[in-house]
Write a structure and sequence with these properties.
mainly alpha; single chain; globular
């Protein structure tokens, strides 16, 4: 079960990273690349519909306005 938890934490981390990006250019492609690495590491094949859902989530996360912290 620990592997499953780590897998889900990695996906959450990727979504957070894409959403919190302060760069002006899209990070969705990089997010999908990282998802591919995580999936390959788990030696898992994602069904096309699950991959499509992940792509949509990453795209939504990429479109979110990130709140910059002012020091």
């Amino acid at each position: 079960m620990r592997d499953r938890e780590l897998y889900l934490e990695a996906m959450e981390f990727i979504l957070d990273g894409v959403a919190l990006s302060t760069e002006q250019e899209s990070k969705a492609e990089l997010g999908m690349y990282l998802v591919g690495l995580v999936v390959a590491d788990q030696q898992e094949q994602l069904k096309p519909e699950k991959l499509d859902c992940l792509r949509q989530l990453i795209q939504l996360a990429d479109e979110v306005e990130s709140q910059k912290m002012a020091l």
